Amino acid sequence: MSFALCWVLAGGLALRLWGISQGYPEFYGHVDEIGVAASIWNFFRAGTLLPTEFTYPAFYSYLVAAGIWLSGVVGLVFRQGGLMDSLVLQSFLDPAWAALVGRSVSALLSALTIYLTYRLGREACSQRVGLVAALFLAVARLPVEQAHQALPDSTMACLATLCFYWSWKVYCRGRWADYLWAGVFAGLVVATKYNGAFTALAVGAAHLRRSLEQGDRGWLRSGKWWAAAGCGVGALFIGSPYLLLASEEYLKVASYQVSSLDFALAQTTPWWWVVRGLVQLELAVGLLMVAGAIWACLARRPLDWLFLAAWVPSFLYIGSWTRESLHYLLHLYPLLAIAAARLADELVARLPSWPGWKYLFIGALVAPNFWICVARVRELAWTDTRLQASVWIEGQIPTGTRLAMTWLPYCPRIALESNRQSLRAYCRGKPAMLAKLEQAWQRQPAYQLVNLEIWLKEPVVPEAYSGIVDLADPETRRVFSRGWRSLRQLRALGVQYIVLPEAIYGRYLQGDPPVQGGAAQFHYLKNRAYFSQFAAGDTTQLVEVAKFADGPGVRGSPIHVYRLLP
């Protein structure tokens, strides 16, 4: 391994590991981490592999669960009796441990993806292209950000790169092992996250290109091809068996997700947002990625066929979504990095003969990304406004007080009396575990919670919208089934304090409502009307008693705490 590659890998790993403890020992990372962590802990509590989170397939959750089990084996968790009892107790005393382990898995596999990108770039193009591609990927902002999250995206990207690598081997050598490994990793990609499904098309593209070059017209009847397909299907259901065994749960969530992809509160730009997002996020490297993708369409070299087989359908499908987020294309970043590196290599060849020019050129391309990544991961170590708010609540508001909040991932995490009662019932036959929990609870107050949101038994559609909404659409039905408790209703329920992060309502008080009618406009106007009463500061009903905002050494959405007057 070259000295330069060692530095690239070390730097990429450092950027991914630095800051993964953000918010620990609380859940102050990505909002989706909570659902994934709860599903993982349930494997230990219930002694089952059945997930409780059906947003994603389960393979990543199983990897993290294996990491948690290993952490218990090596003594990184508090031991109370047997290993399984210790892990269950850990899930109650330190639930964010699952997020910390999950982020470690993401960071390590994201760093491995850098090396795999180098290997693929070296074998398909040249060692210099492979090294530059690895450098581009090491400092690319999106992979670095995703590596800090206990979510399946980084794992999916690593598995997709392995699929691309073995697909390249299928094209070059066509051995049985190449086909089988390509099929296995294609299946595991889908067992990790659905939007990586088009990765499998690279296997078919490699097989087809090889068959055509060899004049084999029976490519569809190839035993190797069908063996790869069989391995893919097998790996999919071994990696996430409940896709089949609990298919109704996954289909229910998938139906809602597909519906929500067409729901937006702002004007969207299909497909163009992908191009714009790459350049805005990755700067000069992103511009090279876009140019490299266009060049791949024109050059159509063997590796380009693999790239285009996965990129084109992904771009057309994901680019049509109103949910504009590049992380859905993270698994294609390695091939985009190779395409960018290949183009950079061509540009370097046209520079003056002085060797230093190429280092200055490549350094100028990656320097902005590197410094932005460093600044970002440094911020992850700052105090979160949610932590500030929870410390203030525990210090200023008596235990047992009734608080109103909503969208809990955006709110400070506080202990709830209802949760403690459930845990007491769970531990009724385990006195040692219960004693340990009671001892920990003595140091922390607990509160009663009232959700600001209220769900209606049946959706209510105002007459003005009755002819333009489709309640058969799950997302639309959800919008018209949601309401908010009034201040009078909260007072009647005994609520004394209301905790509101601006992350919940800020977008409804700024800018203009959506121009289109229907559910999006109704959703915007309804929320704007409700939260305006807090922004207006009606002192006859509310008094703001605390505010926590970002600043030097502090990050996060501003959080307001109101006292509800009698």
Q: How does this model look, in words?
A:
By secondary structure, the protein is of the alpha/beta class. The chain has 2 domains: 3-25 and 111-257 and 266-380, no CATH class; 383-564, no CATH class. Helix content is 60%, strand content 7%. The strands form 3 sheets. It has a 6-stranded mixed beta sheet with strand order 3-4-2-7-10-8. Strands 1-9 form a two-stranded parallel sheet.
Mean pLDDT across residues = 91
User: DSSP helix count?
Assistant: 24
Distance between the termini: 71 Å
The share of residues in helices is: 55-70%
Morphology: globular
What structural class do you assign from the helix and strand content? alpha/beta
A few lines on this structure:
With 566 residues, the protein is of the alpha/beta class.
Which descriptors apply to this entry?
566 residues, alpha/beta, 6-stranded mixed sheet, 10 strands, 60% helix, globular
Please describe the topology of this protein.
Blueprint: H1 3-17, H2 33-46, H3 59-73, H4 83-93, H5 97-124, H6 127-139, H7 141-146, H8 153-172, H9 176-192, H10 201-213, H11 223-239, H12 242-245, H13 247-260, H14 272-299, H15 302-318, H16 333-349, H17 356-380, E1 383-384, H18 385-396, E2 402-405, E3 415-416, H19 417-426, H20 431-441, E4 446-451, E5 453-455, H21 474-479, E6 482-484, H22 487-492, E7 497-501, H23 502-505, H24 519-536, E8 542-548, E9 554-555, E10 559-564
Parallel strand pairs: 1-9, 2-4, 2-7, 3-4
Antiparallel strand pairs: 5-6, 7-10, 8-10
Helix pairs in contact: 1-5, 1-6, 2-3, 3-4, 3-5, 5-6, 5-8, 5-16, 6-16, 6-17, 8-9, 8-10, 8-15, 9-11, 10-15, 14-15, 14-16, 14-17
